[in-house]
Amino acid sequence: MARIRMYVDHPLGPQERVALSREQAHYLFGVMRLDVGADVSLFNGRDGEWRALVAAASKKSGVLDCVVQTKPLQMPPDLWLVFAPIKKDRTSFIVEKAAELGAARIVPLQTEYTQSANRVRQDRLQAHALEAAEQCGGTYVPEVAELQKFAKMLDTWNPTRRILFCDEAMVDKPLILPTNAGPWAILIGPEGGFSDKERDRLNSMLCAHAISLGPRILRADTAAVAAMTLWQQAMGDWT
């Protein structure tokens, strides 16, 4: 098994040579102390995972040669996680776990009670999704979208994508998951919950299904992990 797994924005395949950026070369040869002949696992989100050998190494550059594919591209189910950002570290946690659990797309959402929207940086969250894919053995990196506003997003929502709306107002009701196949989005609200106006808007949509996540009100980051786990078990690629 290769010691190190790395994402590269480069085609991967037989006889492909991958030139490393300065940062990648510093990590492999300065931090991890690899040298010519060492094994590295590469993936790019398109061509699966490839075993590569270090062909040239220096402090500022390097070249890796693809040898053999070790995993095919493994696409996640067609599931989006749409969530209201919370405190910085917990927002990063949600993105990391969504990537690990198999979200195809991750969408930060500004609701009436969202308090951390002005701290959302799409590039940083995308980097967290990439790092999660590197660490968990994934071959696909979900897109992290720019922050969306609640009303604007729903105004243009494609009704063929059903919404699993995790409603804290249903905390005492039994969990009943729909079983319809097809595209889905899980919707998680902010720490203050959804407003009455937002809840009414969601409940008026035929494609939205409100569910309870058990007898206790969960923190937003816990709710995201719990909802994705339940969906994956019922309708995703864990079944």
Looking at this protein, list some descriptive labels.
239 residues; alpha/beta; five-stranded mixed β-sheet; 29% helix
Order of helices and strands: EEHEEEEHEHEEHEEHEH
Q: Quaternary state, please? A: single chain
Radius of gyration: 20 Å
Q: Tell how many strands the DSSP assignment holds.
A: 12
- Helical content, roughly? 25-40%
User: What is the overall number of helices?
Assistant: 6
> Which class of secondary structure composition applies to the elements?
alpha/beta
Beta content: 15-25%
Shape: elongated
Distance linking N and C termini = 28 Å
Q: What low-confidence regions span 5 or more consecutive residues with pLDDT below 50?
A: none
- Report the biggest beta sheet as strand number plus sense, adding barrel if it closes: 7 strands, parallel
Q: Could you give the topology of this structure?
A:
Blueprint: E1 5-7, E2 17-19, H1 22-31, E3 39-43, E4 49-57, E5 62-71, E6 79-83, H2 88-101, E7 105-110, H3 122-136, E8 143-144, E9 148-149, H4 150-155, E10 162-166, E11 184-188, H5 196-203, E12 208-211, H6 220-235
Parallel strand pairs: 1-3, 6-7, 6-11, 7-8, 7-9, 10-11, 10-12
Antiparallel strand pairs: 2-5, 3-4, 4-5
